[in-house]
Specification:
Blueprint: H1 11-55, H2 63-72, H3 77-90, H4 97-134, H5 136-149, H6 156-167, H7 174-182, H8 188-213, H9 218-254
Length: 255
């Protein structure tokens, strides 16, 4: 080899170096997009929350106050219920349960269930869309290959079943699941269908309890409160019982 030959790069080495550089640049673009889109969403959602909290005058945690507000609007009341639930899901700090209870109290079982389900569906799709817009590309660029290797996470049916099942469990955050689903490959129509099927029972339950709690009968109010507590706490109690039963069995097998 002649002196200086080692300093000369072959065309193949140059091409490989350029290819690595292009890949690194492409890998950085999703991160920049993620940051930019996240800033846009935070500004819009945070600004909306500030304006709503400061100027709307609606006490979101008080079902009676929400009921009075929607009933005062007359025919526009159902639209406000739907809009408030949508906003409560997108802006996670706002609780949606008091709004759902107010819907049942104001419009009864059937129409209250319909308005609650419609607002929850629209809110879930909005949260799903925000997550898909902000972070999906970056997540796929960073973890796409790893997620593809996990067989269950690559199945549309499995992801759809997970969304449906979580909608049936009261203590799992509806909002967080909606945002998290937007970061997965789950298609929009499958997410929408799983969410709709999963929220109908919960929407009816909340509307029913709203009707009972706002009634003048103290017995009906007490029964509704107790039933709501049981429904919310039953999964936690069952999980604790299963862990307690599995504990001794697990220790015996380890001996």
């Amino acid at each position: 080899m002649k002196p200086g030959d080692s300093d000369i790069e072959s065309p193949r080495v140059i091409a490989a170096r350029k290819s690595r550089k292009r890949q690194s640049l492409r890998g950085g673009r999703p991160v920049k997009k993620l940051v930019l889109r996240a800033v846009i969403v935070v500004v819009l959602v945070g600004g909306g929350f500030f304006l709503l909290d400061r100027y709307s005058g609606i006490r979101f945690t008080d079902p009676a106050a929400v009921r009075q507000t929607v009933e005062a609007l007359g025919a526009a009341g159902p639209a406000l219920i739907v809009a408030l639930i949508l906003v409560a899901i997108v802006m996670t700090p706002i609780p949606s349960a008091p709004i759902a209870l107010a819907a049942g109290a104001a419009y009864g079982h059937v129409w209250g269930t319909l308005y609650v389900a419609l607002g929850a569906e629209m809110g879930a799709l909005a949260a799903f869309g925000i997550a898909r817009f902000v972070g999906y590309e970056a997540v796929m660029a960073k973890f796409g290959a790893r997620l593809a290797s996990v067989r269950l996470l690559g199945s549309q049916n499995t992801l759809m079943a997970i969304v449906f099942a979580t909608r049936l469990v009261p203590f799992i955050s509806f909002d967080i699941i909606s945002y998290a689903a937007g970061l997965t490959p789950l298609t929009t129509w499958r997410f929408a269908l799983a969410t709709l099927l999963g929220i109908l029972p919960a929407s009816f339950v909340l509307a029913h309890f709203g009707t009972e709690i706002t009634s003048a009968d103290p017995v009906r109010i007490l029964v509704a409160v107790l039933a709501l507590g049981i429904i919310t706490g039953a999964p936690l109690i069952l999980a604790a019982v299963r862990r307690k039963r599995a504990g001794p069995e697990g220790s015996e097998t380890d001996v």
